[in-house]
């Protein structure tokens, strides 16, 4: 029990800090769970008729659920090798049980990642219950003392289920707290930006309004030559743009009051691609769009357009020598997905961690506010943005949005 307890604590405190889907996370899960399984098999707390009573099933279930196929293959290889090395009259049955346990857990992993906490416990308990049921049947006939075997089997089943449930709940609790801490830090940064914008908005807007008024009077004046009125009109447009920038700063902190409507996601993405096609062509970038069947999401079309314009524009600018941007829309049972992948310069893990922070940008003249606004728009709609990237291999933004009924 101490082996499982220490291994579980290690996973609980360090796993949430490692980026999901990365090689570092896979190697970490493999190392901890394989060591845990190896020690459990090496030091069983009792044996009977060739059967070992230990807690190897817990890491063999957690491995596929949290580590995926690669961890499952590594764990299964180690298990088969070590179980054959241990030997004994029940070797073949042990091998069959181990293969079945890892295989069934791997099937459950398809539904595990995005499931709520309670469902994760159920998905993890399913292979454990099947394993314990099979072992109880085998051990019932192998153990001679009726009263003793009942006590042993009940205790064995209870300990496995309780430790597995406690490990899952502990890992999910720590992961949720870690995400909450990140969200609090992000909210604090948004609050700082909002206070900064609010403090300067009033002071800047007043002179802008006065200046714009005098420029409009100058445009209407007969004393100003017609060719110079074009310059004044350009100055008015730039003042309006400055006014819009101030509003953008304010929108980063204040809650949105836009009414949510049903939006055809495929049509909106197609419109954004058509709008940015000349910009992409100017940068020698080809845009490949693949849309699925009709997908509708709730939200404001202007805000969603701003989100995808920012992300796609960044993808184009990430390829200074040209390249390909691949955009795909997909639909699952509960959400719509838009993936935007480029073949550009990519980003390091440190750069990925800072994406969405105010005033951070990988571009020389960037402010980071565009991508920051995109993250906030997505969160306000109940969605999320995931980013995967490697230096020199490109970047993929995946936007997840909740679904709604199409009109």
Task: Describe this structure in a few short sentences.
65% of the residues lie in helices and 13% in strands.
Task: Compile the SSE list and pairings.
Elements: H1 2-14, H2 23-42, E1 46-48, E2 51-53, H3 57-86, H4 91-112, H5 117-142, H6 146-220, H7 226-251, E3 261-264, H8 265-282, E4 285-290, E5 296-299, H9 301-317, E6 323-331, E7 335-342, H10 349-354, H11 369-380, E8 384-390, E9 394-402
Parallel strand pairs: 4-6
Antiparallel strand pairs: 1-2, 3-5, 6-7, 7-9, 8-9
Q: Please, could you describe this protein's structure?
A:
The chain is elongated, with a radius of gyration of 29 Å. It folds into three domains: 179 residues, Arp2/3 complex 21 kDa subunit ARPC3, CATH 1.10.1760; 68 residues, Orthogonal Bundle (Helix Hairpins), CATH 1.10.287; 142 residues, Heat Shock Protein 90, CATH 3.30.565.10. Helix content is 65%, strand content 13%. The mean pLDDT is 79. Strand 1 and strand 2 form a beta hairpin. The protein has 407 residues and is an alpha+beta fold. Helix 5 runs antiparallel to helix 6. It contains eleven helices and nine strands. Strands 4-6-7-9-8 form a five-stranded mixed β-sheet, with helices on one face.
What's the CATH class label of the largest domain?
Mainly Alpha
Mean pLDDT: 79
CATH topology of the largest domain: Arp2/3 complex 21 kDa subunit ARPC3
CATH architecture of the largest domain: Orthogonal Bundle
Shape call: elongated
Note the gap between the termini: 56 Å
- How are the strands of the largest sheet arranged? 4-6-7-9-8
- List the domain count as a whole number: 3
Percentage of β-strand residues? 5-15%
Kindly state the percentage of residues in helix: 55-70%
Strand runs, count: 9
- Discrete helix count: 11
Low-confidence blocks of residues: none
Secondary-structure element sequence? HHEEHHHHHEHEEHEEHHEE
Structural class: alpha+beta
- Main beta sheet strand tally, sense and closure: 5 strands, mixed
Gyration radius from CA atoms, angstroms: 29 Å
């Amino acid at each position: 029990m101490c082996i499982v307890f220490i291994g579980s604590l290690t996973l609980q405190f360090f796993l949430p800090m490692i980026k999901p889907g990365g090689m570092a996370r896979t190697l970490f899960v493999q190392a901890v769970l394989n060591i845990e399984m190896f020690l459990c098999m090496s030091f069983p707390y009792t044996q009977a008729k060739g059967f070992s009573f230990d807690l190897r099933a817990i890491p063999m279930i957690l491995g596929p659920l949290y580590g995926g196929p690669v961890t499952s293959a590594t764990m299964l290889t180690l298990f088969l090798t070590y179980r054959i090395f241990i030997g004994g009259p029940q070797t073949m049955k042990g091998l069959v049980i181990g293969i079945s346990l890892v295989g069934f857990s791997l099937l459950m992993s398809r539904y595990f990642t995005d499931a709520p906490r309670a469902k994760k416990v159920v998905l993890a308990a399913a292979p454990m219950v099947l394993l314990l049921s099979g072992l109880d049947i085998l051990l019932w006939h192998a153990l001679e003392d009726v009263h003793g075997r009942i006590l042993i089997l009940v205790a064995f089943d209870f300990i496995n289920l309780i430790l597995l449930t406690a490990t899952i709940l502990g890992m999910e609790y720590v992961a949720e707290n870690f995400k909450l801490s990140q969200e609090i830090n992000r909210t604090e940064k948004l609050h700082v930006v909002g206070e900064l914008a609010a403090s300067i908005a009033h002071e800047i807007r007043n002179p802008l309004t006065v200046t714009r008024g005098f420029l409009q009077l100058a445009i209407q004046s007969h004393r100003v030559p017609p060719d110079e009125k074009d310059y004044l009109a350009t100055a008015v447009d730039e003042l309006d743009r400055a006014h819009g920038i101030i509003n953008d700063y304010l929108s980063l902190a204040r809650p949105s009051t836009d009414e949510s409507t049903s939006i055809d996601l495929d049509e909106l993405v197609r419109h954004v691609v058509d709008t940015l096609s000349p910009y992409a062509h100017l940068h020698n970038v080809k845009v490949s769009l693949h849309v699925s069947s009709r997908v509708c999401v709730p939200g404001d079309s202007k805000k969603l357009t701003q989100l995808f314009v920012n992300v796609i524009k960044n993808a184009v600018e990430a390829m200074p020598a040209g390249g390909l941007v691949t955009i795909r829309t997909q639909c699952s049972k509960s959400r719509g997905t838009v993936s935007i992948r480029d073949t550009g310069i990519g980003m390091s893990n440190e750069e990925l961690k800072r994406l969405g922070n105010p005033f951070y940008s990988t571009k020389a003249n960037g402010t980071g506010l565009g991508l920051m606004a995109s993250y906030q728009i997505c969160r306000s709609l109940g969605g999320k943005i995931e980013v995967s990237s490697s230096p020199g291999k490109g970047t993929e933004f995946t936007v997840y949005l909740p679904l709604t009924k199409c009109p």
